[in-house]
Structures are given as C-alpha cells and as structure tokens.
Amino acid sequence: MATTTKAAAPAKKSGTPGVKDAWIILVICAIAGYSVWYFVMGNPDNFIGGDRSGHPANLLGTVYKGGFVVGLILTLLFTVICLGFERFFAIKSASGKINLTKFTAQVKAAIKEQKFDEARALCNKMQGSVANVVLASINMYQTVEGDNTLKKAAKIAKIQQAHDEATQLEMPTLQMNMPMVATIVSLGTLTALFGTVLGMIGSFQALSAGGGADSMALSAGISEALVNTASGILTSWVATVVYNFFSNKIDKLTYALDEIGYTIAATYDSNHNEA
Questions:
Q1: What DSSP letter does each residue of 123-152 carry, written as one string?
Q2: Radius of gyration of the chain (CA)
Q3: Any idea what DSSP says for residue 97?
Q4: What's the pTM value of the predicted model, to 2 decimals?
C-alpha cells in the first residue's frame, strides 16, 4: 500500500484563462466592422465617378451597396474570428503541455500501480485544467486512505466528490464565451435575412415608383439583398465551424477527466478490502 504523503499544491495553469468580458471584443469588432464597411468598401475609388450613390466599380463597392447591415454582419464575423483565437489559446492552455491521450494513459497506469509520486510529477509537468483535477483527486485519495473513521463506500464517494468539484471549477474556463459563438451562429443567418428583406423592399419600391422600374434603384435593391444573404451565410458558416471545433475539444477534455476520475475511484475500491 502506498504511503501517505503531504498533499501537493495544484498544478499551475499556463497561458491565458480566457477573456471574461467578451462584450469588449464585440464593441471593438463593431468599430472595426463599420470602419471597414464605410472607409474601405465605401472608398470613392470603388465607384464609377467616385460617387458612393453611383454604380460600383468593383466587388468592394458592390458589397458596400448592401447597406448598413453589412457593417453589422462584419461585426459578427470579426467577433467570431476573435473569439475563435481567444478560445484556441484558452483551451490550449487548459489542455496542458503534454499530449492529452499520452498523459491520460500514463497517469492511469501510475494510479493503478499506486505510484502517486509519479502521477504527481506527470501532473506538474502537464499543468492546466486536467492536471489540476487529477491532483485534487489524488490528494483526496491519500487523505481518505489515512482516515479510519470513514467506511470504504464513504471514502470512494469523497474521492468522486473531490473529482467532480475540481472539474466544476475548471469547466467555466473551458466553456467561457462559447454561448456567444453559438448565438452568432443563429444571428448571422437572421441578420442576413433582415438585410435581404430590406433589399427586396428597395427593389419593390423601385418597381412601383412612377409606374415603371428605375433600373439603378432596382439593381441597388437586388444587390443589397444578395450581398447581405451571402455575407450572413458566410458568418454563420464560420461561427458553426468555430463552435463545433471547440465543443469537440472541450468534450475530449471532459471525457479524459471522467476516465481518470473513474480510474482513481476504481483503484481505491480494488486495493482496499475494508467495509
């Protein structure tokens, strides 16, 4: 039976824990989005004769004709890109410095053999959320092992409780800002639909004006509708990819934590025969 050692401090997290005030990112992206729409796409050089109200001379001018909704869609697109980078670094930090699959296999083997010093060394080398949870479970394992006042079932329950509590403390870091990305998945499509409706309204107004069709106004309305549709779909597409990619990363971390937690509890159960 392994000797009881003094509980070590939790592994220190490396890198960034994530951006808590995501609305700051949204505001910055709104400024950037509308600046790109007005100053870059709305540059007079992008229009025939240098007149924004005239015909576009290139693709940027055509996109500008999509109206103010284009700036809103660009805001959503820039936001989801920024949150994608933010989640990448935050989850990479939480994942630790060792390959997750390799770490899981090594720490499980060490725990099964009750080599807790080796398991601690692996956690200190790994760092991040996974290592913190494993260390909390190991600390509780060795704490209850030296407690003769508790029955075996109660000791196992305490080990599982320590694991669950440590996991709950780490999960907010992993899931931070994911709801905003999920919201943008829907908002991109809805904003595109809003812009499309505005463009079609402009087209029908051109058709009804004076009993005939103003070709310039009609083409502007159709352009506004199609530009907003395309840009909104692109935004939703990017948001969906970002959300599913990082949700999969979080699921892998969660599965690894559950696997290791089960191994620690099962190890105690198999190595102790007290009632």
A1: HHHH-HHHHHHHHHHHHHHHHHHT-TTS-H
A2: 28
A3: S
A4: 0.83
